Structure prediction request, 365 residues.
Amino acid sequence: MVDNATLRGMAQSGCDVTTIGLVDLYMGAPYFLDRIAESGLTAVSANVRDEITGDLLLKPYVIIKRGGVKFGITGVLNPDLKIKVDKEVESHGVTVSDPVEALREYVPEIRKQVDFVVVLSHSGLTRSKDLASEIEGIDIMVVGNHNAHSAQPYEVGTTLMMQPGYRGQAMCDFRLSFDADGTYKSYSGKAVVLDNKVPADAAMALMLKEHKLMIEAASKRRAAAQAEEKRLMREARNAASAEPYKEDCIGVNESCKRCHQDQYDQWQTTAHASAFETLEKSLQSTNPECLNCHTTGQRELPGDGSVEVPANLRGVQCESCHGIGTEHARDRSYGDISVATCIGCHDSENSPDFNFPQYLVKVTH
Ligand code: HEC
Ligand code: HEC
Ligand code: HEC
Ligand code: HEC
Prediction:
């Protein structure tokens, strides 16, 4: 997962290069690129591309020099993985092309410039092994997206496989030895499980603690915002269902139409104007359970059929949204519209697709 603390931790541990993993695009590609830029780490990928431009999202490879030896490092992501994205993010913003093609293109190009070609393969174990045997010229492969670490480095054909497991549960102390003149001799190494017996690095432990506190505070803020939103919806719903204007409504034809011909003409084109006809067509025009929403000012209509809705209040008229006409003032205080105006009728049962901004544009005159 890409966040500042993880990347800072990697940089502080002496990590030079990383590649894109399954959850790194959780907040979308731009967020990922910003975090990488801030971290000072280098990220490479030979097969993750910008969804829109089709260009590689990162450099395909980098060359680094350690102890006189040159390493060329590239990375690939398994295109079959379903990249995880937060529900608030529209899209991860990338496409993932065939890693075999990508490596066939870049590995020979890298080989010409370095002593060792290293592939960071976020592809799981089986697929990484396939890549190692299928593509010539990979000296070292780091296997990502596989839960278990290997106890030692191992070989697949001529490729040396290093498999560090995941979530930092083990540290793979895998070493390459070279002669004084820089000629490669051999490899050795073992995995060190990072359990309680391994003492924590003080600076790292502090950073981790700060990060956990930050996550906790962010989760609390999120929960509070959600609770507040729910509360407002509930309040609005209660306010709407307690609408007092019942029999006091004047009716559009007796009043509003006279002075607001334009709004009237527009309203005539909306489904509200024919809401009573809808009931007639369904043979439900005397059903009090339907009338309270398909007529005007009848939200409190008793369900026993003891009250008849007057003919002049049929359909969802002006006063359903603007309030009773007897309260009409001309100081812009009359008839303010909010989500509360609608959701008494547009409830989840009768209007499951209701979305305030989308619906609002259809009724605004
Ligand atoms: C006698 C004329 C008249 C009648 C009848 C009338 N209005 Fe108005 N209404 C006005 C005037 C004038 C304004 C101020 C318009 C402006 O200058 O923007 C207004 C403003 C409004 C506004 C804008 C909010 C405000 O206060 O400025 C709404 C909403 C409104 N009327 C709805 C209605 C509805 C609903 C009815 C029927 C119940 C109705 N009107 C009946 C004359 C009338
Ligand atoms: C008194 C109840 C009531 C209120 C208040 C109400 N509506 Fe409606 N609305 C209805 C009914 C009933 C229908 C369906 C009418 C029909 O087709 O017979 C409807 C239909 C609609 C439609 C058409 C949906 C479609 O796709 O056909 C839109 C858009 C809409 N309402 C928006 C709103 C908005 C926005 C508000 C608040 C500003 C609102 N309504 C307030 C009862 C109401
Ligand atoms: C709580 C308010 C409410 C009640 C009660 C209610 N309706 Fe509706 N009805 C609506 C709203 C709001 C819509 C519009 C939904 C949308 O388009 O999003 C609607 C839409 C409809 C539609 C679809 C209109 C179309 O053209 O697609 C029919 C039919 C309908 N209602 C019939 C009924 C019947 C019959 C009853 C009584 C058994 C009833 N309604 C009770 C609010 C209500
Ligand atoms: C479904 C809800 C709804 C119904 C029904 C409705 N209006 Fe409106 N009306 C609105 C909305 C939304 C606005 C925009 C006001 C705002 O910004 O809050 C508005 C604005 C107005 C205004 C202010 C001037 C303007 O055009 O912006 C007038 C006047 C008005 N309506 C009159 C009427 C009349 C007359 C009727 C009946 C023929 C009617 N409305 C029916 C929702 C409704």
